[in-house]
Amino acid sequence: MSATVFSIANQKGGVGKTTTAINLSYALADRGVRTVLVEPDMLDITARPDPDARVVARLETGVIARLSECGPSWCALSAGGHDGWAPKAALWGVGPGEIVE
Description:
Elements: H1 17-30, E1 35-38, E2 43-46, E3 55-59, E4 64-70, E5 74-79, E6 82-87, E7 91-92
Antiparallel strand pairs: 1-4, 1-7, 2-3, 4-5, 5-6
């Protein structure tokens, strides 16, 4: 499976980058693709759902990632050709008590 990478960038603030990313996430959800947005900058994506696991990628704020599953605390996701796990609290678009199988 090939990945499609969208980049929404502008050095100036207040030009609609976040709004565009959120709207893109909703459009993907309408097509059956479950996505989340990365909230913190340079979020470590790990090989397993463990904070001490090997880091496989670092994602910037606003990255839209495909969600595959979520447990109580961690979610499996893929972005830019990287697959791994992130703390659920660091993601926008999945509820704190939501379990995704």
